[in-house]
Amino acid sequence: MPIDRNSVAASDLNTTVKLGPDPFEAWLKLARPYFASMPVLRALDTDRDFTLSPWEIAGASAAVRKLDINHEGKVTAEECGLHIDPNSVPPAMLAQLRQRFMSFHPVLAALDANHDGEISAWEIDHAAAALKKLDRNHDGYLTADELVPFEMAVHAGLR
Fold first, then answer.
1. Which residues are within 8 A (CB) of 147 and not within 5 positions of it... i.e. 6 or more apart?
2. pLDDT in tens, 79-93
3. pTM of the complete model
4. What does the pLDDT read at residue 154?
5. What domain range includes position 143?
6. Which of 5, 36, 54, 109 is positioned for an S-S bond with 140, CB 3.0–4.6 A?
7. Interacting residues of 35 by C-beta distance below 8 A, sequence separation 6+
């Protein structure tokens, strides 16, 4: 069937398409300093791409074990990045601060399964399974939106 193009009038294009900011770039802007400040993320993210791949997750136990600086078989909140002078607060408050620190950060909260403020030898051994629970979209990767604390993302306007 022949097409009659005479019925279509030629005109200039009058539509403009504007793209918003790249959401991936916004997450990277938040992830860079966050990953740099968290020893556990620096240990886990071996290729420094701000994403934990299935291979990095599989090696999580070995990576977390390296954070045990004093070789006592567990990883404390201080070894995970909590900066506090233990002599500056009462012992009961120190334990509470450790627990709050660990629960604030999704990776640490997942690794500290019993929420006692440290990652025990058993929890280290089961690190990969614990991290997989953070994978909300079940793609096998942990990206910044799954690793950065919710409150930080809200403050940055990403949630």
1. 31, 34, 41, 52, 106, 107, 134
2. 999 999 888 989 889
3. 0.81
4. 85
5. 21-155
6. 54
7. 41, 42, 45, 50
